[in-house]
Structure formats: C-alpha cells, structure tokens
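INFO batch 0412 | record 1 of 1 | parsing
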Amino acid sequence: LMYFFLLRRVKTLLDPGQKLLCFEKGEEEGLKAALEERERLEQENEDLASLSFLYSAYEPKCWYFEIVETMRKLILTGGLIFLGPGTRTQIAMSMIICLCALRIFSGFKPFVKESHDKFSEVSQWQVFFVMLSALMMKSSIDAGETNEDEGLYDVVLIGIQFMSPLLLFVVLLK
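INFO prediction complete | emitting tokens
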C-alpha cells in the first residue's frame, strides 16, 4: 500500500505518454522514446530517481506493476492462512490465484525486456504446477484402483514436475 502512495505522487512522471508515443512512432520506437523521457525526468527529479527500484523494470505504461507483484506475493504467502492450512481448498485457491496472475502478466506484458515477460509467464506456470502436484499428493488413491493406476499416477506426478523446465526450454528456443 505504501508503494502505491509513493508511486501515485509521481504517476505523471512515470508514464510520459507511452501509449500515444507508440501510436505515433510504432511499438518499439514509442517504448524507446517513453523510456528515454522517463530517464530524463529521473535526472531532473530526485524524488523520482529514489523510487526507480519500484518501476524501472516495467514499461512506463505499467509503472504500477510492482504493486501488483507485491500483492500477488502477499496473497500467496500470507493471505492463504485464512483457509485451513494444508487443505485442498488452500491449494486450489492458490492455483486460482496463480492462473489469475498468469493471465494478468501475460495480458499486460509489463516488463521492458521481452525475455522478462516470458520468464515471468514461465514462473507463474511453475508455481501452478507445484500447486497441482501438491493437490495430487493431497488427494488419496481410491481403494478400487489397481497397481497400474497407481503407477500411472506416479508417472503423471513426476511428469508434472518436469513441466516447468520443459516450458523454460521451449521459451528459450523461441
């Protein structure tokens, strides 16, 4: 919340019209012009420069995304304590939060560097797959299942653990 108030004071300096510049000059040139303008404003304004650790990784139009990221982390680490610890409900809720964060980050693509956008998406998927594995381990195997079913269950659980490195490999190939 404090981040929000600190950044809100200098909002107009953080986003020097990136959308308009992208419309006028094209996506890449508009982003470059907006970043140059933000850098110039940082040199003129000491208050703005002192807050750069909160917004410098993000495009000017997404100056507020450190707040979004902090809220995501707080909800995943502290907000879930209000649900029963270690319950399927807690795990399912964390999966829903991961999917919502994934959609937000992949929709906005807030980072200046495209590679950071991709790694952010992969990291959101990684958290989701860890939670899916936890949910699978939490669920019990029915008494009517055969040894083949249990073996397949184990293979699927192991496969899920390799999804994140596989996604990272695919992203690095692109």
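INFO post-check: Residues 125 and 164 are 7 Å apart (CA to CA).
INFO record closed
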